[in-house]
Amino acid sequence: MRIDGVTSTPVPLGAAVPSLVRWGLTSDADLVFRTLVTFGPRTERTLAVELGLPGRRTAEALAELRESGAAVSTDDSRTTTRIWTARRPAAVVTMLRSRRLRLVDAPTRAQAHHGVVRALKTAGVAASLPVGTLPGLPGTFADDLRYLPSRELTRVRVAEVLGGPIREVLTMSNEQVIDAASARAGAPLDMDMHQRGVHMRLLAMPPADGDPLDISGHLINGTTFQRRESPAVPLKLILVDRRLALFPADPQDLERGYVEAGGAVARALTSLFDRHWTDAATAPQPSVAPIVLSDRERSLITLLAAGHTDHTAAQRLRISARSVTGIMRHLMDRLGVENRFQLGLALGSLRVVAPPSLTSDPSHDHDPES
Amino acid sequence: MPKIILSDRERELVALLAQGHTDVSAAEQLGISARSVTNILRSLMDRLGVDNRFQLGLALGFLRKANVPGPSVGSDG
Lengths: 370, 77
Description:
The complex is a heterodimer. By secondary structure, chain A is an alpha+beta fold. Chain A folds into three domains: 2-100, Winged helix-like DNA-binding domain superfamily/Winged helix DNA-binding domain (Arc Repressor Mutant, subunit A); 106-282, Endonuclease Chain A (Endonuclease, Chain A), CATH 3.30.870; 295-364, Winged helix-like DNA-binding domain superfamily/Winged helix DNA-binding domain (Arc Repressor Mutant, subunit A), CATH 1.10.10.10. Chain A is 42% helix and 14% strand. In chain A, α7 links the parallel β8 and β9 (199-204). The termini of chain A are far apart. The relative contact order of chain A is 0.08. By secondary structure, chain B is mainly alpha-helical. Helix content of chain B is 57%, strand content 0%. Chain A: It holds the Pfam family GerE.
């Protein structure tokens, strides 16, 4: 069957279909898409009946699928006779992925990098630093400036510096995709520094595909390791103890090595880092989506927040303990969390409810880290 | 008034649990025993004047001590 150039090829029953929810579609749209993929083309009405989905929700799901290009319909004038067909899941995922891509292209990155170098030159900090070309010869080419002419030499130098008795490493990364090789090379070093109590700060671009899963997940965002995101990271940069800086000699080709700088250049780049770090902090932090609770959910949450157990809360609300579990399970699904601790965190940070032990006096929140 | 300045250890543990770790996997990650995890949380609950994990989450969330990785995090803005 062919509609609008889309051939319907039903997948075998029970075959895995990627979730569209991950790419920002609603779960209704995902369900309808799954049904179309698995059972073949159908009308809106058939879908609604088969899925037991109210007509309005079915229509909205289909509209969403059409808008995102995941499904097409015949163009009958009457909506009831239109037949809907899903596109191939793989093609849909590719489409949705590229739709969410927020790639910064290489020339833009290079421009930002050259901008920083030019500023260092005009400020008189590094008159001999070349802009747009490489330093002539490997090795020291000016006071406090040294050219490491290959990526491999840089790697060796970085390992040597970071393996030494250092206290702090500041890193800026303008890469949105971390290649496996650098991740493999970096992880053990990071872990080692973490063990030694070296303070690490990483300022990175948001991941290219908008996937919120943290790729630097081998370290916990905590006290000695902190990661912040900024959409405008000007250059790739490593700063050690605020006295040594390493940045690519050619932002468009990392194979051409790095420049190692000390003295005034390192100080200038450190203050650049500090500025960007502070800006990234004041940007709105990622938070949980707002949620509207039903009356029943709100009463239950209020009781549990006050210290009721599931059992006593159920008695109070005249519902079964099983219903309490169900309501909580449903809330956890809506907020995308897996346990009660996380649910508490989410509801607490949304200011839905606070445990009675906490006064609403905000002056108690003195922690300098937060 | 609850004491709300977390120690490094507490902060790391809370960050792990917020990511969905279990007590056991968080303990492994931190190189401590599951019993220590329980004790750290117990002392936190005492300090915050709460009785269970849900309330502990609420309190920490309310005080903005941790972020939950929810589906909306980093949403297209």
